């Protein structure tokens, strides 16, 4: 099945970008650029390579996921399935294979030109995680494998930027807090997918923890990034300024109420979307603390502008909507009244 014949070419491209969740490019580009800046180099000259690279890689990850998850999506994500059918799953499959091959070819060409084995090793691991997340080893079908892969997806762009000029031994340890943060929250994306995942015989680690009567484990999971940061500072592995990330702790813990209180499908979808927004804000916070300069703030600001515009115009599920604020207010009111 190809593109629907009635759609114009620009419409087809926009639809492909929507189902390919192009907004996540902002995550990757922000981490990559900050890492270059943190090694003492200007990331702006790299944007001519970095912007198309991370856009292509984002589409490669997401389109591979769309094709691999077409069975679950028919149950969990009917609105996204409709868009995918407009594009055509055969087209999505061909695009995913082509884009994955293009990224690998680019990394090989980069190694031939740059000759940094450490950088190529990170790039190769990044590509293998990308490919095996949805197909191959299919990390996402394994309860802890999916969490490890998701953590890698967001730390590896930073390492790719760092290894252009830097060394492994000098990677700033506070960036590891991003791994713990992703681990603590990434499973929330599964709360909308329980029925479809069950058809594959899969039950999310996060869904399992959240469904237990005791809230202690869930609160410990959500609070783990801040305990980790405090530990790094206490042992001198991070500068005290990173304690500023603690301002996000109440929001993380609030998600325990949101996850447990969401009853309707649209409420769970809202919680999932707000998780991504919070995820993004936390990432910007930690990246700016790694390189707290005006120059880096401008780069992160540009990435944020793209994130907002893509969320509103180029994502299969429009985010940052007024009705989603109402959903959150209703969930919290219900939870606090019940308590």
Automatic annotation (TrEMBL):
GO terms for molecular function: transferase activity, transferring alkyl or aryl (other than methyl) groups. The keyword Mitochondrion does not apply. Keywords: Membrane, Transferase, Transmembrane, Transmembrane helix. Its main location: membrane. The keyword Transferase applies. It comes from the Bacteria. Signal peptide: none annotated. It is a multi-pass membrane protein. GO terms for cellular component: membrane. It is found in: Membrane. The chain crosses the membrane at residues 21-38, 44-63, 95-113, 119-137, 144-165, 171-188, 218-236, 242-262, 297-314. This is 4-hydroxybenzoate polyprenyltransferase.
């Amino acid at each position: 099945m190809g593109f629907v014949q009635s759609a114009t070419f620009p419409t087809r491209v926009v639809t492909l970008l929507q189902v390919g969740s192009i907004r996540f490019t902002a995550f990757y580009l922000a981490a990559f650029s900050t890492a270059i800046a943190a090694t003492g180099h200007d990331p702006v000259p790299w944007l001519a390579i970095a912007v198309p690279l991370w856009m292509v890689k984002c589409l490669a990850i997401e389109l591979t996921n769309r094709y691999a998850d077409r069975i679950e999506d028919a149950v969990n994500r009917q609105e996204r399935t409709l868009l995918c059918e407009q594009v055509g799953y055969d087209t999505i499959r061909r695009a995913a294979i082509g884009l994955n091959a293009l990224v690998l070819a680019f990394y090989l060409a980069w190694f031939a030109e740059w000759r940094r084995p450490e950088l190529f090793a990170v790039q190769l691991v990044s590509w293998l995680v990308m490919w095996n997340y949805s197909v191959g080893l299919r990390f996402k079908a394994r309860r802890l494998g999916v969490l490890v892969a998701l953590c890698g997806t967001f730390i590896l762009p930073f390492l790719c930027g760092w290894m252009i000029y830097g060394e492994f031994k000098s990677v700033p340890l506070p960036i590891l807090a991003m791994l713990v943060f992703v681990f603590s929250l990434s499973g929330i994306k599964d709360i909308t997918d329980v029925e479809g995942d069950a058809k594959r015989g899969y039950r999310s680690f996060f869904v399992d923890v959240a469904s237990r009567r005791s809230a202690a484990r869930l609160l410990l999971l959500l609070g783990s990034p801040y305990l980790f940061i405090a530990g790094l500072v206490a042992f001198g592995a991070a500068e005290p300024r990173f304690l500023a990330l603690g301002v996000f702790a109440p929001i993380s813990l609030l998600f325990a109420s949101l996850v447990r209180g969401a009853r309707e499908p649209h409420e769970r979808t809202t919680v999932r979307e707000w998780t991504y927004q919070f995820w993004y804000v936390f990432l910007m916070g930690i990246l700016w603390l790694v390189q707290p300069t005006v120059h880096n703030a401008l780069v992160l600001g540009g990435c944020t502008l793209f994130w907002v515009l893509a969320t509103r115009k180029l994502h299969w599920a429009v985010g940052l909507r007024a009705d989603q604020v109402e959903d959150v207010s209703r969930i919290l009111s219900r939870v606090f009244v019940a308590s």
